Amino acid sequence: MSGEKRPASNSFSSSQLVKRQKSDANLSNGNALVNGEQRSGALVQSYVQVVLSRREPEADIAPVLWRARSDCNNYGVLRGHKGAVLDLQYSRDPRILFSASADATIAIWDTQTGQRIRRHVGHEDVVNTLEITQRGAEMLVSGSDDGTIGIWDPHQKEAVDFIETDLPITALAMPEAGNEIYVGDVSPDIKVYDVRKKDVMYTLSGHTDLVASLKTSPDSQYLLSNSHDSTVRTWDVRPFAPEDRSVQTYDGAPTYMEKNLYKAVWDSEGKRIAAGSGDRTAVVWDVRTGKLLHKLPGHKGAVNDVRFSPADSSVLLSGSTDRNVMLGELK
Predict the structure, then answer these.
(1) Nearest to 20 by CA among 51, 43, 42, 44
(2) CA–CA separation, 214 vs 265, rounded Å?
(3) C-alpha–C-alpha distance, residues 184 and 131, integer Å
(4) Is the pLDDT confidence value at 24 over 80?
(5) For residue 134, what are the contacts with CB-CB under 8 A and spacing of at least 6?
(6) Taking CA atoms, which of 31, 54, 170, 176 is between 20 and 30 Å from 277?
(7) Residues 6+ apart with CB under 8 A from 96
(8) Buried-exposed string 287-301: b where 16+ CB fall within 10 A, e elsewhere
């Protein structure tokens, strides 16, 4: 399929930004997120932000930038999307940020100037997920409700190529080599596509509901998935793995009623994983043993996204439908 321009969907309209302010939440029970010096899951800072989710009618349409040190001040708002921002990924160049939106576009931003560098148009529906190649020339890979995987060169406006699939795409991940794409959609199965042949190589089966999130381990040997079946799983994606590639199942992060695309991530060493949850908590497990290490309260709505700090894996960021972003320190 060629990278020809496609019309954008009008299903989502712009909405008004909401003022961000500090939160004075103060919870202190066991491993709870709390203000202060406690280090068993202590909240370092809490700020208010409109949730980045297309399922919220007042979803924010502008990525917001904070400094993660000192007073964590808000230093930038990246305006330009006409629909909710559903995924954000930093470039290998930390000055550059990529965003995927419900307005069916992908945008590239200069985080120092706040200017939009480029807008990629080509998908016909909501863009749910975005991934970046880790080796060679940097490329973007996007997944959309239109059932296509878009492949983009950040230096070109038009798509390099599209891979057609049968269902709306909810999650993507890629190994370091970049020769495969792991694809989650509205089915319970994870499909593994050959990038060159644009065809399914094999399927990972085990979930019983939609796959909401995918992420490869730091060494690209394993894949992490979060599903609406209320389980998080790890999979062996090495070339000569056993036929049954399922490694571990982690419980403790229920989906509940909101059915958001809850993220799950690895820490920088691949020893711990974290996931957002419909029960208003951020959940952390030991990868090898499957032990639940932390179940962090503090939010008043479903936790859509979690990220370990790349510099210090004891620091965890969580974002929620309660419009709070919390920066926490784990024991």
Answers:
(1) 51
(2) 8
(3) 13
(4) no
(5) 174, 175, 176, 178
(6) 176
(7) 90, 108, 109, 110, 111, 117, 154
(8) beebeebbbbbbbeb
The overall pTM is greater than 0.90: no
Name which of 44, 43, 36, 94 is nearest 65 in CA terms: 94
pLDDT digits (tens, 9 = 90+) for 270-327: 999 999 999 999 999 999 999 999 999 999 999 999 999 988 899 999 999 998 889 8
Closest to 226 measured CA to CA, from 215, 211, 238: 211
Give the pLDDT confidence of 4-18 residue by residue, as tens digits.
444 433 332 333 222
Q: Is 53 exposed, middle or buried (0-12, 13-18, 19+ CB in 10 A)?
A: buried
Query: What pLDDT, on the 0 to 100 scale, is given for residue 305?
Result: 95
Please name the residues in contact with 315: beta carbons below 8 A apart, sequence gap of 6 or more. Answer: 44, 308, 309, 327, 328, 329, 330
Q: Which residues contact 20 (CB under 8 A, 6 or more apart)?
A: 47, 48, 49, 64, 74
Report the pLDDT value the prediction gives residue 52, as an integer from 0 to 100: 32
